[in-house]
Amino acid sequence: SSRNFTMSRFFRNWRKYTLKSVLYVSWIIGIFPFKFNRREKHLSSSKWLQLYGLLLNFSMLTVLLHEYKVNYLQGEIYERNVLVKKMDTLTDIIGLITVIVAYLKTFWRSKELLRVLNDLLLLERRHFGTDTFPRCPRFDGYVIQKGLMVIMEAACILIIKFGILQETIHGIKILKQFSFHFIQVGLLLSIAHYHLAVLYTYRFMWNLNEQLSEMVTQQRKGQRVDPNEARLLLGLYNQILDLSSRLASFYDIQNTLFMAFLSSASFVIVHALIIHWININRFNVIIISTIFAQVLFTNLWDLWQCIAFCDLAEGEGKRTPLILKEFNEFRSLDKELEQIIDEFTLFCSYRRLRITHCGLFNVNLEMGFRMVITIILYILVIEQIDYMNLKYN
User: Fold this and answer.
1) Which of 51, 209, 230, 385 has the fewest CB within 10 Å, making it most exposed?
2) 35 neighbors 115 (Cβ within 8 angstroms)
3) What is the DSSP track for 259-315?
4) Can you list the positions of beta strands (E) in the chain?
5) Could you give the C-alpha distances from 329 to 220, 324, 325, 326, in angstroms and in order?
6) Which residues of 109-122 are buried (b: 16+ CB within 10 A; e: fewer)?
7) Burial status of residue 359 (CB atoms within 10 A of its CB: 0-12, 13-18, 19 or more)
8) Pair 136, 206: CB distance under 8 Å
């Protein structure tokens, strides 16, 4: 028990450090134009941070567009295979559009984002940050995973540049490389903001379900369940759904583009890896077995996190009506409590927690498996079409 408590405190402190690091680095990079009041746990808009972020990021973006041509797979493989070059160019275009959309929405609709984030912090401060609700044991681990993923993705860019391409930096290239990595880290953190907010939504819903389960347990033991507590949970459920919908509405375009970027990048890496294996005598085996595998694993893991975190929240939303059904086994319920439970059940029957992007699809594991199958099928088709160009003479 003492060991479990120590580990729990360790991961809780690590989670707090991760959140602080994301906040501070976001301020430094200029993609989070809000001041944070530690005492009141409230965000406020800052014109200076907005001006700093706009000037810094669009200056870096201008340098990147003017001076830098992003080609992940330069060299022999890039020159000999036209298809790889076209796919790599398409990936660059998707990434560039994702960056521009993420920056424009962050600064252009900053007031809307500020209201959503403050509502999230208000729920945390008034309800789910108190001792009334139990601690979610998996929440800390998910936040830590997201922080590590940002670090790993940033490291992969360096691995590609200096491991695969073996580029050297000198003179003007320092500014070019710096602007490229700066933009990449900014995009990763911008997407991380949404995933962290989704994880908070998941934790809120988990806490609500645990409280409902506790009410069922009290009823089984013959203890009185306070109807006002059930009414409060119904109100919190409605607020969580509204908060989740507003978050998805703000981040859906950039998150969809980011998933498309990761899918395209993974697709290109797999195709390049196949070419390396077929022409293994012309390339270094270490590059094939370590660098490519590491980059591919990181991209796919990041893509899966984009989907899995949303599925976590949706999964907790599915638990709520199942817990409410357990009240049906009690024949003698307080009339007021029974009325609230019926209202809660009816509300859940036509409105559940679903994270929908662009009004087209729900982000969950079912969609994730479809994406994986689509990537595999595209790889098989491309390998058949480009079969004659895979083997170098």
Assistant:
1) 385
2) no
3) HHHHHHHHHHHHHHHHHHHHTGGGS-HHIIIIIHHHHHHHHHHHHHHHHHHHHHHHH
4) 34-37, 42-45, 356-357, 361-362
5) 9, 10, 8, 6
6) ebeebeebbeebbe
7) exposed
8) yes
Nearest to 105 by CA among 241, 253, 207, 205: 253
Around Cβ 40, how many Cβ atoms within 10 Å? 10
| CA nearest neighbour of 382 among 84, 44, 65, 64 | 84
Question: SS3 string of 199-250?
Answer: HHHHHHHHHHHHHHHHHHHHHHCCCCCCHHHHHHHHHHHHHHHHHHHHHHHH
Both structure tokens of 119: 């509502």
pLDDT in tens, the chain (393 residues): 566 667 778 888 888 899 999 999 999 998 899 998 888 788 888 889 889 988 988 888 887 777 554 444 445 555 566 777 778 788 888 888 998 899 888 888 889 999 999 999 988 888 887 656 667 778 888 999 999 888 888 877 666 655 554 455 555 566 777 787 888 888 899 999 999 999 999 999 999 999 999 888 888 887 888 888 889 999 999 999 999 999 999 998 999 999 988 888 888 888 777 777 777 666 666 666 677 777 778 888 888 888 999 999 999 889 999 998 888 877 777 888 888 888 988 988 888 888 888 888 888 888 888 888 888 888 888 777 777 666 666
Is 135:61 a contact under the CB 8 Å cutoff?
Answer: no
| Prediction pTM value | 0.88
Structure tokens at 30: 């200029």
Residue entry with tokens 């009240």:
327
